[in-house]
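User: Can you predict the 3D structure for this chain?
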Amino acid sequence: MGIPKGEPVDMKLEVVMIGVSDVDRAKAFYETLGWRLDGDFVVGDGFRGVQLTPRNSDASIIFGKGIPSGKPGAAAGLVLAVDDIDAAHDELVARGVAVSEVFHYAGGPFNNSVEAPRVSGPDPQGRPYHSFVSFEDPDGNGWLVQEIKTRLPGREWKSARGRAVDVASLAELLHETSLHHGRFEESHVKHDWWDWYAPYLSARQSGSTPEEATAAADRRMEEVLHVAPLPR
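Assistant: Here is the predicted structure, written as structure tokens:
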């Protein structure tokens, strides 16, 4: 069979199933971390599924009774990403979690092949992906918390779903949009301002520069909505 034509199907890692010996104890532990409880589902005497999601994560964990998972404590190296490893460490301590001190790997991230692989302290060069803390749940399932301040190029999928913007940032972006729209408004025939604002805002929220967003809005107005320049 050949490779299908068209856009590949999105396949997002959504759930990791872990084994636990005491469902109520595990549920209480992960709630202590501040994770969102998505559901605690019971079907008869043979099934109970508990789903929790770390704050702002697109992936969740599920554990319980009748769940197809490994033995309790068999999960090792589950990874959580944060943008500030010291803040994450301090929050885990405040929540009563037995968390390690900040460390880095002597041979690079996740490299346990060298002698004494973990070195105390954050990465000396402050590189993303290189500083960690670790902790375990009551069954010994192991978690690594990895600091990623800036992702390497190509490490993020472009999402069609817009991210929520706080009010202050949105106000600033609208002000910026109005300034760039002014030039277009002065040079083109009468039009509805929101038709220009929409493509500009969309482009900026997708990562375009103000100049790129301006060009995108101009093109839409002239090519799609046929808003012509004023006669000279």
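The two ends are 60 Å apart (CA to CA). Residues 167-224 form one domain.
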